[in-house]
Amino acid sequence: MKIFIFLFTILWINSAIKAQSAVCDYDIQYFWTNGFINSNKSYYSCYLKTINASSIDKINGQHVASHSDDDVTYFFIEKGNSIKTFSSIFCQKFKNLEVIRTSDADIHSIDGNTLENCKNLDILDLAGTKIRYLPKDLLIKNTKLSQIWFRDSPLATLPENLLISQFNLKILHLKGNQINFLPAKIFHPLIQLEALYLQHNKLQSINPEWFKSLQALKWLFLNDNQIAAIPAKSFESLPALTELYLYKNKIKSLTSNSFDGLHNLKILNLYGNEITELPRNVFSRLSNLQELSLFNNKLTVVHAASFGIHNNLVDIYLGSNRINQIEKSLIDKIAVNFINMEGNICSRDKLKGIDNIKAGLKTCFENHDNKIQELLTSLVKVVRAYICGKPVQGVGNIVGGQHVARGNFPWVTALVTPSGDYFCGGTLVSNRKVVTVAHCIQDKHDSSPKMAGDIITQLGVYDLKRVVEVGRVSYAVQRINVHPDWNTLTEPFDADLAVLVLDREVTFNEFIHPICLAGVHVATVATGVVVGYGKSEDETKIHENIPKIIATPIHTNEHCFLKNSNLVKISSERTFCGGSGTGVGVCRGDSGSGLFVTDGSAYYLRGIVSSSIIGGRYGCDVDSYSVFTDVAKYVDWINGVSTDRFD
């Protein structure tokens, strides 16, 4: 099993946009990983970059003699074009398009006949446009669509018959618009729809009629709207639904029938609403529910009558309410393993000492002694989490290339774009700092470094393909500190190091806490582990969705130079090399990920994945070694980075 590290900007993107015009000359292997359905096939691609509207009629797919317009199946309009209207000329020229994408393009309108000649279209992703209105006949001829993404645009509604021909659609993504109204039967044709994204809009109410035909729907995202109530039987037409996200709305009330019909629901997230009371039996019919979040509402009492007998419910999040009592009979009715009560009246002192914790729990659970002792045991583990380098979950035997268990390495951090796309790894080293490599911020020969607003750090993350995950918390970056010696114009990867200062203090728990920085006493440890989302031997993935672990021998630079002299030019006195040199190595997907060592009592950040030799079928030479930034030589600088908001 191979784990690799993403070291450079994706090759096919660089190659495809090398000219300041339309480029239609590159075969790509395209992987759709932003949604729940992956597409894995080769496309002949056409990219538009800084093209003038007057030059559209000159675009063609004949840049390479072996291809023609009819061969173009992937079409991408980038930011920076002057095209204001998405017209029919594209589908007239490239009739066999299967994928059309935009990325923050300055497109203000789209013609009703724009897509009528693209009858083989499979994926339509119009992201970040300025389109406010969609013509009602826009999709009438595109009956093969499996994914439609109208996201991060200023749409206020959808025409009533826009989706009337979309019987094969699996994903509909409407996140980040300004939708405040939807026609009652807008989704009725979508009999195969599996994922519906409506989050970050301006919906004020739910119309149960929307969902009448969505028998196949599994994932429904209604979070970050302005919904005030959940009417009775709102979701009773959704028998296949497994995950329902309603967090960060303005929900004040539920009815006992709000969630009727959701027999297969596993995750229900109501975090960040204004719920004051749980009606009798409101959750009793959710027999397969596993995770329930009521965090940050206005509850004062939790009654057993709100729940049925739940043998599957293992995680309940009740923190940051106003709870002063939980009926003890509730504890007998559910198979809960974890109850988060932090920030409530009955547990406000819970982290000030074990004695106070026990007193608080007695108040919360009415002296239900067995449950108190069980929770005390788990809370002691949480207190341990405040000591660096000691995971709450024990780490078993390390088997290279295997997925790690959740919580084994709770300092592992994913760096993603504001739209949620993973691009690098990182490591949590304090309650405000994440370390990564500088080339994730500004790569060699790149004149445009990332700004703080371009990066979101995800802590407690495990499965990247899940949009929402219990225990995951996203933090914005207040300030980026790239090491002053990092030089993008020279070849060595010296000082390939950056510290991201987070916008607020991190709350530690069993899934989130920091690792220790390496000191002299672990400098001689011969083997560490790399944990991250690097590309594996599975060629259908750009990166892994669940982190993998690989044992990594640590060597001196000189040892590796003898094996591969090409490493000399990318190394320095502040790097070391690692790997086995036997075909198991690091490559795409994990730049910035840490190499961890242990002295038997705690884990330490010994190195950070920096660079490797390009080549091989995966884009790097896994028979060679990789270069790591030597953290032990930068400890003083990392510790010296200020977290002062005004520094």
List keywords for this structure.
647 residues, mainly beta, Thrombin, subunit H, 7 helices, 9% helix, disordered N terminus
* General form: globular
The overall pLDDT, averaged over residues, is 78
Question: How many DSSP helices?
Answer: 7
First-to-last CA distance: 45 Å
Largest sheet: 14 strands, mixed
The level of helicity is: under 10%
| Gross CATH architecture of one domain | Beta Barrel
Pfam family, one: Trypsin
Organism: Chironomus riparius
GO molecular function: serine-type endopeptidase activity
GO biological process, one term: proteolysis
What does this structure look like?
With 647 residues, the protein is mainly beta. Among the domains are: 407-513, Thrombin, subunit H, CATH 2.40.10; 519-635, Trypsin-like serine proteases (Thrombin, subunit H, Beta Barrel), CATH 2.40.10.10. The chain is 9% helix and 22% strand. The protein is built from seven helices and 32 strands. The chain has helices spanning 11-16, 89-93, 328-333, 354-364, 369-384, 557-563, 635-640; strands spanning 23-31, 40-48, 74-77, 85-86, 99-103, 109-110, 123-127, 147-149, 171-173, 195-197, 219-221, 243-245, 267-269, 291-293, 301-302, 315-317, 325-326, 338-340, 402-403, 412-416, 422-428, 433-436, 456-459, 473-482, 498-502, 516-517, 527-532, 548-555, 575-578, 594-598, 603-612, 626-630. It has a 14-stranded mixed sheet with strand order 1-2-3-5-7-8-9-10-11-12-13-14-16-18. Strands 27-28-29-32-31-30 form a six-stranded antiparallel beta barrel. The chain has a six-stranded antiparallel beta barrel with strand order 20-21-22-25-24-23. A hairpin with a 4-residue loop joins strand 30 (594-598) and strand 31 (603-612). Helix 4 (354-364) packs across helix 5 (369-384). The longest helix has 16 residues, at 369-384. The protein is globular. Mean pLDDT is 78; it is low at 1-22, 25-40, 348-363, 379-386, 396-400 and 537-541.
